[in-house]
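Problem 12. The chain below contains 311 residues. Write out its predicted structure in token notation.
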Amino acid sequence: MNSNKHLADMNLTDNFLFGAAMDNEECGPLLAGTILKTIFQRDIHIKRINPERVILPPGRKLHGVRLDAYIEEESAEVLPGSIYDLEPDNKSAERDQLPRRARFYHSSIDSRLLRSGRNYNELPAVWVIFITTFDPFGEDRMVYTIRNQCAELQEMEYDDGAATLFLYTKGIKGDPPEDLRVLLKYLSDTRPENACTPELSHIQSHIEDIKRDPEVGRQFMDWREYIARERREAISEEKERADAAEERADAAEERAGMEKERADAAEERAGMEKERADAAEERANAAEAEVMHLRALLKSAVGDNSPFHSD
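Solution.
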């Protein structure tokens, strides 16, 4: 999330431009349809697009989620249409969070899909799709498809309807379709020269209109201020946490100092007690020696003059 970019320089992998495009009545369906058709190599009949859909947490202290583009597919016969969540991401510093972030997105989406008393088989398939400008797993693949499976029998079918796609815009390995390469290059570098298919050219014309739209410009300035404010608040909260941690460390150091002083005082008292005990022992030994000496003198003085002495 680079809030220092100008709107004119933004690409569709930047959250603001992607959200503005998805929110546009003409561009949104075209962009979503082109992305999904290129990924799945079939037409996707879109029922509804919800840009920046917020799923509130079940409790006040729990985490909610904001989905960049929540897309519902039209139902096919008796089967519910799939759900697609498109997530452009250029925050490489948060790479290690992606697997659990995907898990959380899936659980948040699922929690809103099944009404009370309905059968679990009525849950639609859910695809969480990350479009990243960085390699999420370091394998230089353009497509990483993640599904649940049985660890002991990996060939066993286990279809729970949940899947996660990571699309790395600069990936090479895996022989991805050429139209996917073209699409991902355009999304990460949204310029006219990269809009080299009729669909992308059409999208590009909408993108240029969106970037020139005064209302979008105002929204962009508000967004930049929001991001800056969030950043300031995060820095302030981090400083408060650091200050509190420093205070706790100082208090702990002070307590440790006091404990050391008490320990030193106790050691000093113990030394004095030992000195007193040693002195008392010396006096006792001296007294005992004096008693023995006096007894010896007494015995010598009495000698044979004792009236109890007999031959």
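Discussion. Helices lie at 15-23, 27-40, 98-110, 178-188, 198-212, 214-302. Students who got a different answer should revisit the alignment rule from Section 12.3.
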